[in-house]
Amino acid sequence: MITITKAKIDDLDKLVDIDNMVIGSKNRRNIIQQSIQLEQCLISKEEEEITGFLIYDTNFFECAFISLIIVSPSHRRKGFASALINYMVTISPTNKIFSSSNRSNVSMHKVFEKNEFIRSGIIENLDEGDPEIIYFNELPTEVSLFKRVKAVVQR
């Protein structure tokens, strides 16, 4: 069973290890730590094992922006990214949620589309020859309110 919770500082080393498995570097440690401290980092677990994480903020035109979704290689294509996104939607501090992925990341595009995100734009020149595709999801006010109340009750 997949569970999603807010990350705690005790999770930091495990999250950095998962990030290192995916990108081959531990250079995002400070970003992950700051996100945990700001309570803007969610983790997915299967039983007690951390399987992935999501980082977000509200600095993108005052809208929620999912800046990073990482799932450990051994847990990919098992619903962890979708579970993280769905939970984020329930707790989002804004009705508009944005995210992005390189054009070459076909798997992530499928995850966004499966979770009712639509393409919203493109940014050139971040990674040479691999533009960033922006995704968007907007919750109707009544759905947003219902999901947020439900999320609070479940905590």
UniProtKB/TrEMBL annotation:
Highest taxon listed in the record's lineage: Bacteria
Protein known as: Acetyltransferase (GNAT) domain-containing protein
Protein species of origin: Gracilibacillus ureilyticus
Keyword Transferase: yes
Residue ranges occupied by any N-acetyltransferase domain in the UniProt entry: 2-140
GO molecular function annotation: acyltransferase activity, transferring groups other than amino-acyl groups
CDD domains for the chain: NAT_SF
Keyword Transcription regulation among record annotations: no
Pfam family, one: Acetyltransf_1
Keywords attached to this entry: Transferase
